[in-house]
C-alpha cells in the first residue's frame, strides 16, 4: 500500500498537481481516496499562491470509479450528496482545474474528469459511464449535454461502452491529446497558459462560461457583466494595457 492515497505537489509556478495514488485498486474512489481528495481541493483553493490545479493518477488508471465493494458492504442505495469530491459541485472552487487523464476514467473517474474545467488525455486513456452495467445510475452526467452532442451522450450512457481517447477528443470531451510520457508536461503547459492571464480576468472568464451554460442568452449576458465588474475595476485591468504599451510582460497582483 502506498503511503498517501492522494499526493499534493504545490509547485513554485503556482500550479498544484494532485495525484490519485492507489494504483493497486486503479485509483477507485474508496474512503481514503475521497478524504484525501477533499483535503487536496481545499488546500488548493485556500492557497492564494496556487492558480491552477492539475488532477491525475498513478499507474495504468486515472480512476476506475466508485468502490463497488464498499457499496456492497454498506448496502448503499442513493449515495450521500456529499460523498464524492466533485469540483464546483460538492467542492467549492473558484480557480481553474485540469484533468490529466492517464488511463481508465470509468464511472466516478469520468465524473471527476468531466467536472474539471479542461481535460488533457493520454492517447492510451479510455472513458466510460458504466453505471448501466452494474445497476447504478449517473445523474452527475447531466452537465455532459453542454459538452457533447445529445445522440452521442445517449449512446454512452445507454450502452456503458468505453470510448478511446481519440474519440473523446473528436466529440469535444477532451481538449488535448498527448503520448503517455508527455501527458503531465502537456497538462502543465496548458496550466501555464491559463495562469499567465490576470487572475481576476481568468476567474471572470471561467464564470462567464459557466453562466452561459446555465442560463438563457439575455440572463447570461447580464450575469456575466456583473461577474466581470470586479475584474474591470482591479489594478490588473490598468496594469495590462500599461504593460502592453510599455512592451513588457505584465506584473499581475490579483487585485
TrEMBL record:
<comment type="similarity">
    <text>Belongs to the enoyl-CoA hydratase/isomerase family.</text>
</comment>
<keyword id="KW-0443">Lipid metabolism</keyword>
<dbReference type="InterPro" id="IPR014748">
    <property type="entry name" value="Enoyl-CoA_hydra_C"/>
</dbReference>
<dbReference type="Pfam" id="PF00378">
    <property type="entry name" value="ECH_1"/>
</dbReference>
<dbReference type="InterPro" id="IPR001753">
    <property type="entry name" value="Enoyl-CoA_hydra/iso"/>
</dbReference>
<keyword id="KW-0456">Lyase</keyword>
<protein>
    <submittedName>
        <fullName>Enoyl-CoA hydratase</fullName>
    </submittedName>
</protein>
<dbReference type="InterPro" id="IPR029045">
    <property type="entry name" value="ClpP/crotonase-like_dom_sf"/>
</dbReference>
